[in-house]
Amino acid sequence: MFPQLSDRLKATFKGLTGRGRLNDDNIRDAIREVRIALLEADVALPVVRTFLERVRARAAGTEVLESLSPGQAVIKVVHDELVTLMGERNESLNLVSRPPAVILLAGLQGAGKTTSAAKLARFLQEREKKQVLLTSVDVYRPAAMEQLRQLADQVGARFHAKGHDPVAIATDALAQARVGADDVLIVDTAGRLHVDDEMMAEIAQIHAAVDPVETLFVVDSMIGQDAVNSARAFNEALTLTGIILTKADGDARGGAALSIREVTSKPIKFLGVGEASDALEAFHPDRVASRILGMGDVVGLVEEVQRSVDEGQAQKMARKLRKGKGFDFEDFRDQLVQVEQMGGLGGLIEKLPGASELPAAARAQAGGGETGRLIAIINSMTPGERTFPAVIKGSRKRRIAAGSGTQVQEVNRLLKQFTQMQKMMKKAKGKGGLARMMGQMKGAMPGTGNPFAR
Hints:
By secondary structure, the protein is an alpha/beta fold. It is flat and about 70 Å long. Helices cover 57% and strands 8% of the residues. It folds into three domains: 3-86, Up-down Bundle (Four Helix Bundle (Hemerythrin (Met), subunit A)); 101-293, P-loop containing nucleotide triphosphate hydrolases (Rossmann fold), CATH 3.40.50.300; 299-441, 434 Repressor (Amino-terminal Domain) (Orthogonal Bundle), CATH 1.10.260.30.
C-alpha cells in the first residue's frame, strides 16, 4: 500500500533508529525528508504543513529526547500523527434507521462506483448479514445498468432499475426495497469526467428523493490531490458522510488517503484493494499507518484468516496427517485456494511486519498472480498425478505446462517446492513435531520486530 511513500519514509528513519541520542539537527533533517516524502506522494500542501508542525512540536518534546530509543520514539510520533491525520479510528456505516437504509454512491466517471456498489453489497451481506437491493440511476453510460445487474448476480444481491429518469428510477427502487423487506438499498449514480452544474443538480435531486442515511464519495486513489478537490465539491453539494478510496492496491502515491480527511472532515470508510468482489476493506487509520511505516497489519491479517479459512477443511487435513497419510497436491491446491480468498500472496505479505524489507522483485512476484499460476498447474494434473507426483516426468511436465499456460521450468519449480513441503509435513507428525518444524524455519523469515511494542 502506497509503496513509494512507504519506501521513502523507511529510508528517512533508518538513520535515526541506530542513534543513542538525537539533537535538533537530526530532528530537523528527518522532518525535512518527511516533508519531501509527503509532497512527492501528492499530499495537499496545507495538510503537509499542519502535519509537520504537529510532528515537530512532539519530536522536540521530552517524550522523544528523554526516551531510551529516541529514533524509535520519533517514528512513533510520526505513526501517531498519521493516524490522527487519517481519522484516528474506523468509522463504520450508520445503518440505524427504518429499513431500507439508503446508501448513495457519488463520484466522477472511472472512479469505480459500480464495482464498489457490488463490493459493498457483498460486504454488507457477508459481514453484517443484511439483505441488499442494488439499483443504478446511470442512464448515460452505455450498459451501466446491465453491468451492475451482472455484478449483483455475482454477489447474490437483488437488483431493480427500470425507466429513463434517474429520480424516478431511484424512488421506484426504494419502493421495491420496502416491498421486498430489504435492509439496505444501494444507489449507484452517474459519473462525469469532471464536476459540472448539471451533474450536481441531478444528484442533489436524487439525494432529496431517497434521503440516504449514508452518502459515500467514491474516489480513485491514483489521482492524488484532484481526488481531494472533487471530494470538496461533492461535499458542498451533498454533505457527504464518508469516502470509499478505490485502487489502493495499485501504485497509488497515497496523497488522497492522507489529505482527504483533513480537507473535507469526512472519514474514509472503505478501501478498494483489488478487482474481486470481496476486495473491500474497512478503513482503519492505525492499521494503514502501520503498513505505510512497514510495520504490517497483524490484526487485519488475523481477521482475514478467520473469515477465509475453512475450519472444517483444516481439521480434515490435520486428521489426515495424524493418521500418517501423505500431504498431496489436492491438499496443496486447497491451501492455495484459501490464500487466493484472502487476497493472494501479495496481500498477505503486505500485512506482515517487516515484509517491506523484502527485495522489491520478491514483493512484485508475490503480487503478480503467482498463486493463480500454481493452482492452474495443479488443475492441469490428472487425479493420479496429484496423488503420486513422482510419476510426473518429461512428457507429463510438457503436457501440464501446455494445459496451464505456463513453462516447464515453472512446473519443475512447483514440484521442487512441493517436495520440500512434504518433508516439512512429515516432520510435523508425532509428539513435538510441529515445534521441531518451526525451529528449522526460524531465521528463514524476514525480521518482524515491532518498534512500538510495549
